[in-house]
UniProtKB/TrEMBL annotation:
Keyword field contains Ribosomal protein: no
Keywords: ATP-binding, Coiled coil, Kinase, Membrane, Nucleotide-binding, Phosphoprotein, Transferase, Transmembrane, Transmembrane helix, Two-component regulatory system
E.C. no: 2.7.13.3
Domain Histidine kinase: from-to ranges: 249-459
Alphabetized InterPro entries for the sequence: HATPase_C_sf, HATPase_dom, His_kinase_dom, HisK_dim/P_dom, HisK_dim/P_sf, Sig_transdc_His_kin-like_C
Name listed for the protein in its UniProt record: histidine kinase
Superkingdom to which the source organism belongs: Bacteria
Gene Ontology terms for molecular function: kinase activity
EC main group: transferase
Signal peptide: none
TM region positions: 9-30, 155-178
PANTHER family on file: PEROXIDE STRESS-ACTIVATED HISTIDINE KINASE MAK3, SENSOR HISTIDINE KINASE
C-alpha cells in the first residue's frame, strides 16, 4: 500500500495533519497553563476576601481548607499600597521560580509551558497577577507544580488523541476522494494503454476520453491522438512492407527483361545510321541504369538504400549526361537546360546514385514547367565549398504546392505534381543522407524552385 499513489497520499495526509496539530498544540498547552494559574489566583482571591470579611476570625482548620480549595500554599494581597499576607500554610518549601502573569508576551507563556511540561520535578513556584474586579493592586500566590503538570499532561493527551482522530478521519476522506478522482481514472488509462499495446494495429482499442478531471482528460486526449497516429503509421508500415514484398517479386523478372533489352541494344552499335550510332550509347547506359535500379528496388522495400560506392569523378560529365537524357525525353520543347559546373570540378560520391538524384530533381522540374504550359529553364550548378561540394538544381517553374511542402521528403504522401506518389524526393533524400550529406529545399515560389545538395569531403561513417 505504501508504494501506491493513494497509500502514499494517505500517509502524507496523516503526517501533515499531525504537524498542523503540533503547531496548534503548543499554543494551546500554553493557554491551558495560563488559564489554570489564573483560576488558582481567582480562587485564592475569593478565599482571602472571605477571610477579610470575617476580620480574620477563622480557625486554622478552616484556613487550611480555604488554601486547599484554592490549590495554593499562601496568598498575598497588595491593597492601598500595603502588602498583606492573608492566608499561609506552615513549612512552605523554597520558591524555585517566579512568574508574572500581568500581560506576559505569548513567547514567554509558550516557553514557560514547554519548560514545565518537560520538567517532571514537583517544585514550588510563586505567581503574581492582577486581582479580578480591581480588588487590589496585585495578588501573589505560592503553589506546587505537580498538579499543574498533571493537568497539562492530561489536557495534552486529550488534544493529541483528538488530533489523531481528526487526522485519520481526514486522511480516510482524502484517500477515498483520491482513489475516486485520481487513482481510478489513472488505472483506467493504464489499462487502456496495456490493452492497446497488445494489438496496436486494432483501432477499436484506442482509448476514448472519459475523465471528468480536466488534466486527466487532456492526458487521455493526448494519448488518443498518439495512439491514432501510431495505428495509422503501423498500417502504413504494413502497406510498405507488402509493397516491398511485391516489388521484390517483380524486380527479378523486370531485371531479366531489361537485360534482354540491353543485349538487343548492343547490336545497334553495328548500324550505319548516324542517329542510331549517336543514341545507342545513351540507350545502353539508360538500360544499364534501369537494371541497377531494379536490383536496388528491394533495398527501398526494406526502407533503406544500399550504401554508396564512393569514387571520384568529374561532376560536369554526369550533369551533362542527366541534362542530355532529359532533353531527349522533352517532346514539347518548352524547357531550356543549362549546366554551370566547372570542367575540373571532381566530387567524391556514388555516380549511379547521384545520377538518380539529379535525374529525379531535373525530371520533377521539367514536369512542373510542362504542367504550367509556359517556357522555362532548368539549370544545374556545382561548386566546391570549404567542407565539401554543393550542387544546386534550379528551375523557373510555378513552385511547389502547399500539400507537397507539408510532406516534402516523405514517401507515399503525394508528390509535387498530380498523380505523383511522392517516392522520388524521398529516395533522393535517403541517397544523399547515405553520402553523409543533405538534400534541402532552398527556395520555392512563383519565380521557381531551387533544391540544394550538400556533399561532405570526408565521410567518417555512412548510415
Amino acid at each position: 500500500m505504501a508504494n501506491s499513489l493513494s497509500g502514499r497520499f494517505l500517509i502524507l495526509t496523516i503526517i501533515f495533519v499531525m504537524l498542523a496539530e503540533v503547531f496548534i498544540f503548543v499554543p494551546s498547552i500554553a493557554r491551558f497553563r495560563e488559564d489554570y494559574i489564573l483560576a488558582r489566583l481567582e480562587r485564592a482571591q475569593i478565599a482571602s476576601l472571605a477571610l477579610l470579611a470575617t476580620d480574620g476570625m477563622i480557625d486554622d482548620e478552616l484556613e487550611a481548607e480555604l488554601l486547599e480549595n484554592a490549590g495554593v500554599l499562601n496568598v498575598v494581597l497588595r491593597r492601598d499600597e500595603a502588602r498583606q499576607l492573608i492566608l499561609s500554610s506552615d513549612n512552605i518549601p523554597p520558591v524555585s521560580f517566579s512568574f508574572d502573569l500581568r500581560d506576559p508576551p505569548a513567547a514567554v507563556l509558550i516557553r514557560d509551558a514547554m519548560r514545565r511540561l518537560f520538567r517532571p520535578q514537583d517544585e514550588t513556584i510563586r505567581v503574581i497577577g492582577e486581582p479580578v474586579r480591581e480588588a487590589g493592586l496585585l495578588i501573589e500566590v505560592t503553589m506546587y507544580t505537580g498538579p499543574l503538570r498533571a493537568e497539562m499532561l492530561d489536557y495534552g493527551l486529550r488534544i493529541l488523541l483528538l488530533s489523531a482522530m481528526i487526522s485519520i478521519f481526514t486522511a480516510a476522506l482524502l484517500f477515498i476522494a483520491v482513489r475516486r478522482l485520481l487513482v481510478t481514472p489513472i488505472k483506467r488509462v493504464v489499462h487502456a494503454m496495456t490493452r492497446y499495446a497488445e494489438a496496436p494495429e486494432d483501432a477499436s482499442r484506442i482509448i476514448e476520453p472519459g475523465a471528468s478531471v480536466r488534466e486527466l482528460r487532456e492526458a487521455e486526449e493526448t494519448l488518443q491522438t498518439l495512439q491514432t497516429q501510431l495505428t495509422g503509421a503501423l498500417r502504413q508500415r504494413e502497406r510498405l512492407a507488402q509493397l516491398g514484398e511485391a516489388v521484390a517479386k517483380i524486380s527479378h523478372d523486370l531485371r531479366n527483361i531489361l537485360t534482354t533489352a540491353t543485349l538487343m541494344a548492343d547490336r545497334l552499335d553495328g548500324s550505319a545510321d548516324p542517329a542510331v550510332q549517336r543514341t545507342t550509347p545513351k540507350l545502353v547506359a539508360s538500360l544499364t541504369r534501369a537494371v541497377n535500379l531494379t536490383e536496388a528496388t528491394l533495398a527501398f522495400g526494406r526502407a533503406e538504400e544500399p550504401p554508396p560506392k564512393l569514387e571520384r569523378f568529374a561532376l560536369s560529365r554526369l550533369a551533362e549526361d542527366v541534362i542530355e537524357n532529359e532533353r531527349l525525353t522533352d517532346s514539347d520543347g518548352l524547357v531550356s537546360y543549362g549546366c554551370d559546373v566547372p570542367a575540373g570540378l571532381v566530387v567524391r560520391a556514388d555516380p549511379e546514385q547521384l545520377h538518380r538524384v539529379l535525374s529525379n530533381l531535373v525530371r520533377n522540374a521539367r514536369q512542373a514547367i510542362a504542367a504550367k504550359g509556359e517556357p522555362g529553364e532548368i539549370s544545374i550548378q556545382g561548386m566546391e565549398t570549404d567542407d565539401g561540394w554543393r550542387i544546386r538544381v534550379a528551375d523557373t517553374g510555378p513552385g511547389l504546392p502547399k500539400k507537397a511542402l507539408d510532406h516534402l521528403f516523405k514517401p507515399f504522401h503525394g508528390g509535387a505534381r498530380k498523380g505523383g506518389s511522392g517516392l522520388g524526393l524521398a529516395i533522393a533524400a535517403e541517397i544523399i543522407r547515405g553520402h553523409g550529406g543533405r538534400l534541402e529545399l532552398s527556395e520555392t515560389g512563383p519565380e521557381g524552385t531551387v533544391f540544394s545538395i550538400s556533399l561532405p569531403a570526408k565521410v567518417a561513417a555512412l548510415p
